[in-house]
Specification:
71% of the residues lie in helices and 0% in strands. By secondary structure, the chain is mainly alpha-helical.
Length: 153
């Protein structure tokens, strides 16, 4: 007996096809993205050394790598964001998050969720404290936008 009036399996196939098509939207080659991440990491580490976490985070969140075949670049950028989150003092988290734009907060939340999905590689306690501040600052709308966005970091 079928209780559904909607063929969910058919919708899932369409969702998978759309997700696969969106993965190819990156116009940059893997070498270009890797070079951009390397340049970005030097600027971010310099900002961390100066103690400017907001500037470092804004640079790290600028143009995140999306798409298939970019897993190494995505992982490198996630590690870069993680370094910033770990280097920021707990009392400064609120001011750093407050200084970010809405788009940057959403991208940061994507990286937080990425880190929580890989607990062996990232410090989940630090990520949860950042998550609390991001949701406090951006509201639940940030969470909804990140969950609805099909681009993953």
């Amino acid at each position: 007996m079928a209780y559904r009036k909607l063929a969910i399996d058919h919708l899932d196939a369409e969702h998978q096809q759309m997700t696969e098509q969106m993965q190819y939207l990156s116009t940059k080659s893997h070498a270009e993205v890797t070079s951009q991440i390397d340049q970005k990491s030097a600027a971010v580490r310099a900002a961390i050394t100066r103690g400017n976490s907001l500037e470092a985070l804004e640079k790290a969140l600028l143009e995140p790598p999306y798409g298939r075949g970019m897993e190494a670049a995505q992982s490198a950028n996630a590690q870069l964001v993680s370094e910033i989150l770990m280097a920021t003092r707990a009392q400064d988290i609120g001011s750093v998050v407050g200084g970010l734009s809405d788009d940057d907060r959403d991208v940061l939340l994507k990286y937080i969720y990425h880190g929580l999905a890989h607990p062996a590689e990232f410090n989940c306690g630090v990520l949860l404290s950042w998550h609390e501040r991001v949701v406090e600052s951006g509201g639940l709308g940030s969470v909804v936008r990140v969950m609805a966005d099909r681009r993953i970091v």
